[in-house]
Amino acid sequence: MEEQSFFDKMMINLRSTCKYYTGYPKALGPSTVIHFTSEREFIHLLRQGHPVIVAFTIKSNYTKHLDKVLEEAAAEFYPQIKFMRVECPKYIGFCMTRQKKDYPFIEMFHSPEQTNNNQGRAGDPNVTKYAVKVLPYNYDVSAYGFREFFKRHNIQSSSNK
Fold first, then answer.
1. pTM for this model (two decimals)
2. How many CA atoms lie within 13 A of 25 on its CB side?
3. Angstrom distance (rounded) from CA 113 to CA 141
4. Tell me, what's the pLDDT at 56?
5. Sheet harboring 33-35: ordered strands across?
């Protein structure tokens, strides 16, 4: 068997150590991006206590790129941060509550807190209301952009801190 050249050794090392090398496909494993199916599932996910990055999408060429970025970022930040994709044509009501006109867009939901049900009206005792902090995502759409966003908002994105 012939010996590897210096260049081959360097490229193998680069691929194994560099998080942002984009010239070679990454082995991401099974998808960790959650596909939205209901508001109940979304609330359950929020109640787990982890921040949730939600991409509100429509069918477009840019969405294909966004899906790849979400897969890469979800693989990198799982399980500390969850990533979810909402197909707005399927779930119109959920997307309309965000009151945005430009798609796709990304928001982060975090820190759910139970709110007071008795706000001047008699409420259903079986209904629990939550207040959730929502941050619009306006950084570069890449794993690096997500990392910088998490740093800026003091969100722990890895378990080895």
1. 0.71
2. 4
3. 28
4. 92
5. 33-35, 82-87, 52-57, 105-114, 130-136
